[in-house]
Design brief:
The chain has helices at residues 16-27, 33-44, 48-61, 81-97, 101-112, 116-132; strands at residues 64-68, 73-77. With 141 residues, the chain is mostly helical. Strands 1-2 form a two-stranded antiparallel sheet.
Amino acid sequence: MKNTEKTEKGELQLSPGEWKLMEPLWEHSPQTITQLTARLEPQTGWGKHTVITMLNRLTAKGAVRYTEGERARLYESCISRAQAAMRETESLLQRVYGGDLGLLVHAFVQQKGISEAERAQLLAILQQAEAEQPAPPEQEG
């Protein structure tokens, strides 16, 4: 098995094309180059050589690994979609908003607006986070 472990927090960033290739691996793994090409070609126009190049890049990043199958290499993801999404979100938050989550949310609300369902969802998330937060230690006085 070949696998370079570079999936430590913050080290892995996926390009838009790499996200497209990872999606079918997240849905079903392992897959061969032929299977991935057949899946991606209709939407991307990528041929076998493009898929191979992308897989080599993702393998070097530690996002994908392969095993030698009987007839072909079998590729699978080393990172979940949720982990990749969190890394992308953290990267955006740091790069664009200096780590300030409030600014990020404000920017989205100002530009896109917010539906009642989204508002309720955000409030529920905040209430859950508050409930899970440990109580501050009592100060002696």
